[in-house]
Write the C-alpha cells for this entry.
Amino acid sequence: MLILIAGPYRSGTGDDPRKMADNLRRLEQASWPLFEAGHVPMIGEWVALPVWRSAGGTTLGDALYDRIFYPAAERLLSMCDAVLRLPGDSNGADNDVRMARERGLPIYYRLEDVPGVGN
C-alpha cells in the first residue's frame, strides 16, 4: 500500500526550523518499518517542501506555504491506500484523517497495526 504518514510537522513549533526538522525526523522514523513490510511510505512534506522552495517560498506560513502544503497532502491522499496517524496535535494531520475517512481509506494509529509491520 501507499501509506501517508501524518502527524505534527509545524504544529507546536513556533516555526522554529530545528523543532520542525525534529518533527519531520519523527515522521520519517515510521518510513523504514512500512517499507520493510512491503509498503511505500509517503510524507506530505517530502513533496510540499521542495515544491514550496522551488516556487520561491522563504517564510514558513506565508501565503505560498498555504497554497502548497495542504493541497499537496490532499493530492497525495487521492493516491494513497491508507493513512498512518502518528501522535501529537496537528490540524493538518487531523485534516488528512478526515479526508481519508471520507474516501473510505483505512487509518492506522499505531505502526504495529499496519498489515505486515512487525511480522
The mean pLDDT is 94.
